[in-house]
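Closing statement on the zinc ion sub-project.
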Amino acid sequence: MWKIIGHDWAVQLLEASINQGNIANAYLLTGPDGVGKRTLALEMARALCCTGHPRPCDECDNCRAVIRGSHPDVLVIGPQDGSIKIDQVRELRRRAMLAPHRSRYKIYIITDAETATPEAANSLLKTLEEPPKHLVLILTASNADALLPTIVSRCQVINLRPVPLSTIEKALRERWDIQAEEATFLAHVSTGCPGVAIKLAQDEGLRDKREREIKTLLEILKGDVIDRFEWAASASRDPTTAQEMLERWLTIWRDMLLLAEGRRDWVVNLDFVDELGKAVEQMGKEALFKGLRETCSTVQALKKNANLRLALEVLMLNLPCTRA
Ligand SMILES: [Zn+2]
């Protein structure tokens, strides 16, 4: 059984090609973080190596070895210090030339392929141009546009879309034994990415961080310019945390706009729905749009390496406030 939440169509497609022996040399799985790209790649590897029935069977030595991460024909590489390096791809190419040990195929998975350095990407392209017959290469990336078009054109592209919240909720209850109310909350916060829900369920620190991010915005909306600039000064000391916080704030503005439209059922941050509702009453729709716009443009500016302190201060001046 394929152990993945949602993406039934993708599983059916891959299953059919495996059963017909019609397997592409390379696949590219795209979609947002936590949607299930790596999981699907590993399940595909398991199905390709499996000697049981139906594939993947969960019982044979091959299935177990892939799950343990110790199958000699399955290799996963990902970014080291933020990027995939030429040496990693060279090593992969060297190993790919050798015949498989235990299976018909060698399945090599490259996660976050968009982080490959130009040299690594070119080396990868060479493998894709003349792949050994036994090699199945599976790349994952947030989107195909982030890769060389010459790489994309040599892959079968499978674009994974967010999974329906009800599917995630059901899986959390049935497979992870999570209580109904908690499962609903996690599914909403995940915005359709099961990996995000599972991480939040397992990591208390991550949950605290999320709550802090939401409370900080609510405090800032109440605060005056002095409070806001003090926050900007301290937040600018830690760029990664600041950027993650701003991304979280985008979900809050979205939620508040939905609440203003009376769409409580679409709200992501369900546990803060009362606080957000109050803030909506104090601000009005115009201010909400402004808040979303300003936060969005700060996120964009930071992606283009704007000065963090300055960008945060500008944001602080432009955000609406909930003070009477
Ligand atoms: Zn098996």
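The chain has three domains: 8-159, 164-202, 204-318. With this model delivered, the sub-project is considered complete and its resources will be redirected to Aim 3.
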